[in-house]
Amino acid sequence: MKILVIEDDPKTGDYLKKGLRESGYTVDLSRTGTDGLQMALNNAYDLVVLDVTLPGIDGWQIMPALREQGDVRVLFLTARDQLSDRIRGLELGADDYLVKPFSFTELVLRIRTLLRRGVAREADVYEVADLKLDVLRRKVTREGSEIALTNKEFLLLHLLCRRQGEALSRTLIASEVWNMNFDSDTNVVDVAIKRLRAKVDRPFATPLIHTVRSVGYVFGDAPEGAP
After folding, report:
1. Rounded to 5 degrees, what angle do the CA atoms 79, 20, 41 make?
2. What are 65-84's pLDDT values in tens digits?
3. Cα–Cα distance for residue pair 45/37, rounded to 1 Å
4. Which of these, 67, 144, 155, 225, is most buried using a 10 Å CB contact count?
5. How far is CA 46 from the centre of its chain?
6. CATH code at 193?
7. Residue 155 near residue 149, CB atoms below 8 Å
8. Does residue 4 contact residue 43 with C-beta atoms inside 8 Å?
9. Do 159 and 77 belong together in one domain?
């Protein structure tokens, strides 16, 4: 797998080049936006690690040019840590966004995930019946009315939307949302579902969260026999 790093800071660029090579990748390094874009357009890379603030042209300008050229995977690695920056990067078509200072182990894991799953990117917006979930803006509406959710409630609803129509076990939900092994004596999932239902379902005519007996929960149209 061949990676292009576009990074103007000498220490960071050299560190990334050395570390990624030691992790088994072929790595090219560019220290300016102008040279980096030309390298990306003239060579076949599996992934580009892209800074935002660069000499010549910046990462925001490089990103659309990469998308016009093709579907190379792009990971923004930048000190720009505002939510608006992350939204902008992902809306421009980046596959991932990691903020400096960063863990090199996390960077490698994210790169491996991107290379393993290919160019398919997660949807930015999910629409199920009259419910709309905007991932980037962390905004949920139903029948046009905005619904205020806690962070965990949003993560739970995001999971349900991503896996719409699938019966999700409590074990899977606990692992995905709370990063915990499910203990049958713990009712954290059921309590969270109850609170989410109070906001997402109860004020509206048609429920979207359904219990699947002896399994867990499903989101969307009610499965046969579900309450």
Report:
1. 75
2. 998 877 789 999 999 989 88
3. 12
4. 155
5. 19
6. 1.10.10.10
7. no
8. yes
9. no
